[in-house]
Design a protein that fits this description.
By secondary structure, the protein is α+β, with helices and mostly antiparallel strands. Among the domains are: 1-126, Kinesin motor domain (Kinesin, 3-Layer(aba) Sandwich), CATH 3.40.850; 283-352, Myosin VI head, motor domain, U50 subdomain (Four Helix Bundle (Hemerythrin (Met), subunit A), Up-down Bundle), CATH 1.20.120. 45% of the residues lie in helices and 13% in strands. The protein is built from 14 helices and ten strands. It has helices at 3-7, 26-38, 64-70, 82-96, 112-126, 132-153, 206-213, 215-221, 231-234, 246-260, 264-281, 304-312, 316-324, 341-352, and strands spanning 43-46, 49-52, 154-155, 163-164, 167-174, 180-188, 285-287, 293-295, 325-330, 333-338. The strands form five sheets. It has a two-stranded antiparallel ribbon. Strands 3-4 form a two-stranded antiparallel ribbon. A hairpin with a 7-residue loop joins strand 3 (154-155) and strand 4 (163-164). InterPro entries: Kinesin_motor_dom_sf (IPR036961), Myosin_head_motor_dom-like (IPR001609), P-loop_NTPase (IPR027417). One of its GO terms (cellular component) is cytoplasm.
Length: 353
């Protein structure tokens, strides 16, 4: 796409603002959206709302010349773009000294996560040039935080290879000169059920597969089996996805941990928890007498209970007791009772989640 395409839109590229459609109907709306998408115009306005269609491929819409073209411009001066929205929010902050909020909404696979990254990159690029190094450092931390959140909160679904399975609210903090000085990210509504069960064609959270891709750390966590052999991550029957390089992403996550400021002990603890969950999924129970059960042990280096106790720094007997029995309080009495095999599996899954 040439520079002239940044400045103008051709008549055959559809209407850039749905408000200007000669006929406001669902058919006209969809037809205009389809026409623009075919012309590689993935952004369209509805007034001051930006409608985005995920192209599922790389487009040259975010190069430095695009940032320069939208910097300092009014919302409707340039063709529809997410940069125009970011510029409008930032300009409101500077001119009115009031908070701005950008709400990114859409169904799975629509590109919400990528949109937040694009906005962050734009803000980093248009702020104070003299302090660009410090601003870039802060922005980089926020972007790398996204990498970590995606590893532990995103997964492959039937609609998207990197679908966010949680909600996120991000605050950007600016100083009196309106340069970013920090941020805060809150997450909520994490899809914990995915930890123990996935639909056919879907994967668990990326972190499990990334850990198994790192051969150097496998022995430290007792992960001698292939991803297909771990119950918690094989139910979707798509442990390997051609478009996802788990080994490369694992290295990116380690780098992100270091940039954000995690210590080596903290990083190690996080991966130990991930490994312990994998072992918990392979923990099985045997019925004793119809009302009680016990953990099935394996007499080799892959014994799940032994590795769970090592990774969580607990005694095997304590873990076995916690999973095969429960504490009941009734009439001011507290006593321990054995679990049935069904309840034991429920308890195992609850602990994992």
């Amino acid at each position: 796409m040439t520079m002239s395409a940044i400045e103008f839109e051709e008549p055959d590229q559809g209407v850039g603002d749905f408000v200007l459609l000669p006929e406001i109907t669902m058919d006209a709306f969809v037809e205009n959206l389809k026409l623009r998408f075919e012309k590689r115009r993935i952004y369209t306005y509805i007034g001051e709302v930006v409608v985005s269609v995920n192209p599922y491929r790389e487009l040259s819409l975010y190069r430095p010349e695009y940032i320069t073209s939208y910097k300092g411009c009014e919302f409707f001066e340039r063709p529809p773009h997410i940069f125009a929205l970011a510029e409008a929010a930032y300009r409101t902050l500077k001119q009115q000294s009031s908070n701005s909020c950008i709400v990114i909404s859409g169904e799975s696979g629509s590109g919400k996560t990528e949109a937040s990254k694009i906005i962050l990159r734009y803000i980093a690029a248009v702020t104070n040039v003299e302090k660009q190094a410090e601003i870039q450092r802060i922005s980089n931390i926020l972007i790398q935080t996204n990498v970590i959140l995606e590893t532990f909160g995103n997964s492959r679904t039937n609609r998207n290879d990197n679908s966010s399975r949680f909600g996120k609210y991000m605050d950007l903090n600016f100083d009196c000169k309106f340069d970013p000085i920090g941020g805060k990210i809150q997450h909520y509504l994490l899809e914990k059920s995915r930890v123990v069960k996935q639909q056919l064609g879907e994967r668990n959270f990326h972190s499990f597969y990334q850990l198994l891709s790192n051969k150097k750390s496998l022995q430290d966590y007792g992960l001698y089996l292939k991803p297909e052999n771990y119950y918690y991550i094989n139910q979707g029957q798509c442990c390997q996805v051609d478009r996802i390089d788990d080994r490369q992403y694992y290295q990116q996550v380690i780098e992100a941990f270091n940039i954000v400021g995690f210590t080596q002990d903290e990083i190690s603890i996080i991966w130990k928890i991930i490994a312990a969950i994998l072992h918990l999924g392979n923990l099985t129970f045997a019925d004793v007498d119809g009302e009680h059960c016990s953990i099935v042990r394996v007499n080799d280096q892959t014994d799940p209970l032994q590795w769970i106790s090592k990774l969580l720094e607990c005694e095997p007997s304590d873990i076995s007791s916690a999973l095969t029995s429960r504490v009941v309080a009734a009439r001011n009495e507290v006593f321990q009772t054995r679990q049935t095999i069904l309840r034991a599996y429920y308890g195992r899954d609850a602990l994992s989640k």
